[in-house]
């Protein structure tokens, strides 16, 4: 395999035809001294890809190439890059640049950069004005800060979905004390939720309760490491868990219609509810339930590089792997349809097929 890069990707041209991907040429931003060019081998399919191509989060820059769970090999590194060498197995998640100078960037909170977060796709590079393009493609250019070396113990296809889906739940778990003696709930057992169960277990939590809107995923949730499965579609589902959990991570891609008061009632006073899902309608916050129960309601975006590297080490040490279905990248239309229809167990991963 040569290290010459081809720059092509599968793009959506019209949000009304979001399953219709066409292979187009990409013009990447000019190379920077700290940039790394990655030859993409695999890319996971995240719920956020679907919100973007359908226009559910607002009109994207068209044509749009999505995908932000990327794994491959470093093909070129800029003269000031220190942590990555050509040939290294590396990955990129949902962010490829930030200012690197603000308080957030300097305290391992670069996903909350106060000046400019450059997302992996559908984002504007501040210097060049180039629109970023994601991983349903042959190659990506990223600042080295957002390039993660992948431990040898992890296969590239397993590491890829961890770089958005995994770290997005790992970060709020560790920031909110998930570990021995803690009782954690995970709402929504999709791509993110199936990681949250595994990481909560891997971090040593005492209880990991899986909340799912139907009974269909019960067996899977237990296999993933849940100590209990609760069907939120059933009236009174919350009663047996009253005031017992320390933390809930919510990945359910639904609003309104989420049983928020009932879910909050399962938290002990002082407990925390952390929203990571970004449904297309805002979730109403039941403030009275928070007040009378002494509960904090928060949100969480992606994770820092520090957390991503810790997560990869934990996954390597504990043998944590996503449950994936691999398909050729040209089938990205089928993959996004399956996510939209809730038919994925639990992540689709696209395998490179662009001639190069
Ligand atoms: N905060 C961040 O940084 C960040 C990062 C990545 C993704 N996200 C967002 O997180 C969300 C989940 O992403 P994902 O990739 O995990 O998606 P996913 O695989 O589609 O999982 C979403 C889960 O939500 C639940 N759900 C979906 N439709 C529902 C409905 N009508 N009623 C009740 N429950 C429903 C389902 O769980 P059950 O069947 O178990 O109920 C489903 O498995 C998306 O909104 C995505 O944009 C946020
Ligand atoms: Zn994502
Ligand atoms: Zn910053």
From TrEMBL:
Its cofactor is Zn(2+). It holds the Pfam family ADH_N. Belongs to the zinc-containing alcohol dehydrogenase family. Coiled coil: none annotated. SUPFAM superfamilies: GroES-like (SSF50129), NAD(P)-binding Rossmann-fold domains (SSF51735). Signal peptide: none annotated. It comes from the Eukaryota. This is Enoyl reductase (ER) domain-containing protein. InterPro entries: ADH-like_C, ADH-like_N, ADH_Zn_CS, CAD-like, D-isomer_DH_CS1, ER, GroES-like_sf, NAD(P)-bd_dom_sf. It comes from Hypholoma sublateritium (strain FD-334 SS-4). CDD domains: CAD1. Residues 11-350 form the Enoyl reductase (ER) domain. Keywords: Metal-binding, Oxidoreductase, Zinc. GO terms for molecular function: oxidoreductase activity, acting on the CH-OH group of donors, NAD or NADP as acceptor; zinc ion binding.
């Amino acid at each position: 395999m040569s290290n010459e890069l081809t720059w092509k990707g599968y793009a959506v041209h019209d949000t009304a035809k979001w399953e219709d991907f066409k292979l187009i040429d990409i013009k990447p931003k000019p190379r920077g001294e700290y940039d790394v060019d990655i030859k993409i081998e695999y890319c996971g399919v995240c719920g956020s890809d679907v919100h973007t191509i359908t226009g559910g989060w607002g009109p994207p820059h068209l044509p749009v190439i999505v995908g932000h769970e990327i794994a491959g090999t470093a093909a070129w590194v800029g003269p000031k890059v220190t942590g990555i060498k050509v040939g290294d197995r590396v990955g990129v998640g949902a962010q490829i640049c930030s200012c690197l100078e603000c308080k957030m960037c300097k305290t391992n909170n670069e996903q909350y950069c106060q000046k400019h977060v450059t997302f992996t796709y559908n984002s504007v590079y501040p210097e060049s004005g180039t629109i970023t393009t994601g991983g349903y493609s042959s190659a990506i250019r990223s600042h080295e800060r957002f390039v993660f070396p992948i431990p040898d113990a992890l296969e590239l296809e397993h590491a890829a979905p961890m770089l958005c889906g995994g770290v997005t739940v790992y970060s709020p778990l560790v920031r909110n004390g998930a570990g021995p003696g803690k009782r954690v709930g995970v709402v929504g057992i999709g791509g993110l939720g199936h990681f949250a169960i595994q990481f909560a277990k891997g971090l040593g939590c005492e209880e990991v309760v899986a909340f799912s809107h139907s009974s269909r995923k019960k067996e899977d949730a237990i296999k993933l490491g849940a100590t209990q499965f609760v069907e939120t579609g059933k009236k009174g589902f919350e009663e047996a868990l009253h005031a017992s959990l320390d933390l809930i991570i919510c990945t359910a891609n639904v609003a309104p219609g989420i049983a928020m008061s009932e879910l909050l009632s399962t938290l002990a006073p002082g407990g925390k509810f952390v929203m990571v899902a970004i449904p297309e309608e805002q979730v109403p916050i039941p403030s009275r339930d928070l007040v009378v129960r002494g509960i904090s309601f928060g949100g969480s975006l992606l994770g820092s590089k520090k957390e991503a590297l810790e997560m990869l080490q934990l996954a390597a040490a504990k043998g944590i792997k996503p449950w994936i279905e691999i398909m050729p990248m040209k089938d990205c239309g089928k993959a996004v349809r399956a996510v939209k229809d809730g038919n994925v167990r639990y992540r689709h991963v696209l395998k490179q097929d662009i001639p190069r």
